Prior knowledge:
about 260 residues; alpha/beta; Rossmann fold; 8 strands; about 30% helix; globular; disordered C terminus; cytoskeleton; protein transport; GTP-binding; Ciliogenesis and planar polarity effector 2; GTPase activity
Amino acid sequence: MMIQPPPPGSIIQIDWHRSADSKEYLSRIRSKKQRRRFGLLEAPVLPPHLSVDTVRYKVFISGKSGVGKTSLAARLAGVDIPNMHYETTGIETTVVFWPVKLRENGQVLFFRLQLWDCGENALRRFDHLLPSCKEQVDAILFLFSFTDRASFEDLSNQIARASDPSDNIVKLVVGTKFDLFMHTDVTERDVRKFQEVWGLPVFRVGGDVVGGFGEVAPLLNALAERLWYQDCMAMGAAQPGPVTVTEARVPLPFRP
Length: 256
């Protein structure tokens, strides 16, 4: 049975990244006013008085060729977006760290999101790639481009291919190239109708990567909130807040 998502902002403080309280945590994922890129074995290093638990999740980015899967991964990680489009030849992974504060008890958690990106042509040529991307996945981001009508109309095929209605995987839809509004092939009416039919939230991204978090924070917060809620409900908690990190997800200690 699919777990119904919580109302936005009911589990985490969605504007916490703008508060003074968050600055020292966010500084650990920045370097010289730019986002720091983390390798598979790296993590933010915090002083003892800021020691927090880290929870780990696997996120698969699904979408037609050219919609911006690799660019979205770069955007969420805060690194340079490729100037030219190239087809991802296999599976590429990107690690994103994002701190959140739980609303009920004020606990701060670092979410470690490992983003999996695989080229559409590679998925078609090699049968084992899609099962690898879906194996033990916690969330799927379904992408379409506002400048590519066909990618929007393909969303239903994406959702059917990469997930099952009965699973408990977190599913979010992301519309890319939203800044190119003069060339849009997808209207707001189209988006509203899709949301009514599928019951999935649609997030919009576009524009340049900057040192701030304003553009990516809504998507990262929604992803973190739904993942945490899903784990808590899977543990049978009536209220998500009191579930400990150890119960919900084995933490990754901060180590350099």
